[in-house]
Specification:
This protein is an alpha+beta fold. It is built from eight helices and 15 strands. Bound molecules: 6-O-phosphono-alpha-D-fructofuranose. The site of 6-O-phosphono-alpha-D-fructofuranose (P6P) has 9 residues, from helix 6.
Length: about 325
Amino acid sequence: MNQTTPPQNLALPVGVTLDRYIIRKQSAFPFATGELSQLLRDIALAGKIINREINRAGLIDVVGGFGAQNVQGENQQKLDVIANIRFIRALKNGGEVCALISEEDEEIIFTGNDHGKYVVAMDPLDGSSNIDVNVSIGTIFSIYRRITPTGTRATLDDFMQGGRKQVAAGYILYGSSTMLVYTTGHGVSGFTYDHSLGEFFLSHAELTSPDNGTIYSCNDGNFNQYPETVRDYLATCRERGYTGRYIGSLVADFHRNLIKGGMYLYPPIPKAPSGKLRLLYECYPLAFIAEQAGGSACDGYRSILDIEPTHLHQRTPLYIGAKGMVEELLSRF
Ligand code: P6P
């Protein structure tokens, strides 16, 4: 053995797995009896399976359109359908979730686990039109403790609690590396997937957003349709020499802005007068994460988390990211 190398350096620790981290933090979970921990593990499992299919997209028959439309009237990609099935199956088999809603399904999905204490709202695969061109895509999820009695069938009320009642929220980013980022209201933690071990390892213990930023993310092709306030703000950003970065994949744009400092904007436009993004399974969860990381999220008038939910697939304008940028824009409305 090389005498100059201390033995412990020959076998460096592999790091903290998601499972170990959840168990260690379980004391911080409300009602810490392990169910929420198991639910997060179920989500991570589905993410690992979907990650594998995304990574082989060009080699197996999962690319391209499925030949149907979802409840939003959007053409479903094959991987949209696959991801939806994978998450529904993982949450059904995990046993902790009594019901869920998905971007891909119009109605509530009942798992049969009526004793499950949680409900989940999710976008199984956001940005899936980018799959064919190998651009990062993501899963977004939001978790609530049910308010209806356990043992009964969940109802719409379980999903209409409002953004500040989320007990956990997160996303999985299938990018140059695959990351799972989540919060339970005690800061934001990021995990990077090690394919060789099949585990998520803690890589960003305390993710925080810079107070301000110089990156704006919006579809410039819609610029002329934006409200005047937004156009004026973006003109100011350009005068200041800010950087425009827009991947067309919300999770990827959100994650980059979370790390580097920036703001994502999806304002109302004539073809989407309430904005494009959905409140319950895109905006609420990302707003929860943004606020937990020291950032902010609003619809131009109020915090995203304070918007009253009225129906499962409602949309909202979204301005989310660095607190200073969101507050400056908000001050102009
Ligand atoms: P547009 C993907 O469809 C998505 O929901 C987000 O991931 C993305 O930021 C946005 O829509 C892109 O929309 O209208 O700019 O193509």
